[in-house]
Design brief:
By secondary structure, the chain is an alpha/beta fold. The chain has 2 domains: 116 residues, Sandwich (Tumour Suppressor Smad4); 236 residues, TIM Barrel. Helices cover 31% and strands 29% of the residues. An 8-stranded mixed beta barrel has the order 13-14-16-17-18-19-20-21, surrounded by 5 helices. A 7-stranded antiparallel β-sheet has the order 8-7-10-11-1-2-12, with no helix packed on it. Strands 4-3-5-6-9 form a 5-stranded mixed β-sheet, with no helix packed on it. α1 packs across α2.
Length: 368
């Protein structure tokens, strides 16, 4: 096996429906009801000596040891020795595990089997994990679009791309998709997939409207991977106007944000600070990084037409501050004409929200 990687099995080793991680620290690795096994599964359907993992030509392999109720790899019974790969689903009788590889440079617990306190997935999680991996591998994600309009004249200046998907046959909310992806370490892959499919589907629009694509907070930590993804996107769509949305709470430090801005300029991709005002004000970043857009969070906009004068003055001051820096302002979450009217009076240039269009497939807006 690779010297810089190690393996573990993640699954339910008791009846409490808590996910445990068992390190594959030595090979061969024995699985069974036998108390001397490396992974002990004290269940009636698991054989005394059930299966083993072993090394062959620097790869990890699986062998059933003549078990009564079988060993299964990705749903198929193991009759001969089978090679294993990251993400494989293995059943020892009816007990399900996922095989995971990770860098040995990462700190590991001293014990062989540890409870994953931050990995509480439902009992069906491994089926859902397989569904998510299938969705990513088979390009099964799709995109919907929400228009951004000019408040003064109502023209559509661009669209935000929002990812959608389903696990198996079930439509799954994006928040749930990302929750599962984060547990599997696939959140950056999912985020990139949503960007890729969205920009591709935007070919249905005429006039090359601006596209706002989203980032996941972990991508800001691993900016080389994010930049590789965006460079590939730019190569495939050299003429498309693109802006990367960054949630203000995801900014790790000013220096890394400046570096990111510099690299994005090289590939002609802009930056928008998203959900401005929900966490830190990020005024320093506005001054030193100067994004092209700032999107004011819905919390500032909701029922603004009923707000006190003090609140109106505060929102106007913040909007003016951003505009005076040469940054365009976008009011998010507008749901009625009254909110739109007040935002225009306070100086906002653009807006987004259900009042102007719900997230819909590209063909809906292209036809309109």
């Amino acid at each position: 096996m690779n010297d810089s990687a190690s393996w573990c099995l993640e699954g339910y080793v008791d009846d409490k429906h808590e996910v445990w991680r068992t390190m594959v620290r030595r090979l061969p690795f024995q699985v069974g009801r036998n108390s001397e096994s490396d992974l002990v599964l004290p269940f009636g359907r698991v054989s005394h000596t059930h299966a083993k993992l072993f090394q062959r030509q620097k790869s990890l392999w699986l062998r059933d040891m003549g078990s009564t109720n079988g060993t299964f790899l990705n749903g198929k019974r193991v009759l001969d020795d089978c090679p294993l790969k990251d993400g494989d689903i293995v059943h020892f009788a009816d007990h399900e595990f996922r095989l995971v590889t990770f860098s040995t440079r990462q700190p590991q617990a001293a014990t062989q089997t540890i409870l994953l306190d931050d990995f509480h997935l439902p009992a069906s999680s491994f089926d859902r994990a397989r569904d998510l991996r299938d969705m990513l591998e088979q390009n099964g994600a799709r995109a919907v679009f929400q228009p951004l309009v000019g408040l003064a004249d109502g023209h559509v200046m661009g669209y935000e791309i929002l990812g959608r998907g389903q696990l198996g046959e079930v439509e799954t909310p994006p928040t749930e998709l990302f929750y599962l992806a984060e547990a599997l370490g696939l959140e950056m892959d999912l985020s990139a997939e949503f960007r890729d499919i969205g920009v591709a589907e935007a070919a249905a629009f005429s006039g090359n409207p601006a596209l706002f694509v989203n980032s996941h907070p972990s991508e800001l930590v691993n900016s080389p991977m994010l930049l590789d993804s965006l460079r590939g996107l730019r190569e495939r769509h050299p003429e498309q106007a693109l802006t990367l949305e960054i949630h203000e709470s995801a900014v790790a430090d000013l220096s890394s944000l400046q570096d990111l801005r510099s690299e994005l300029e090289k590939i002609d991709i802009g930056i928008a600070f998203d959900d401005f005002g929900t966490g830190q004000a990020r005024l320093l970043e506005l001054t030193d990084v100067a994004p092209q857009f700032v999107k004011f969070d819905r919390a500032w906009i909701k029922n603004l037409h009923r707000a006190t004068q003090r609140r109106l003055d505060l929102v106007k001051t913040l909007a003016s501050l951003v505009i005076n820096m040469g940054v365009a302002t976008i009011a998010e979450g507008i749901e009625c004409q009254e909110e739109a009217d007040v935002c225009l009076e306070l100086g906002f240039e653009y807006a987004q929200g259900y009042h102007f269009g719900r997230p819909s497939p590209a063909h809906v807006f292209a036809r309109a």
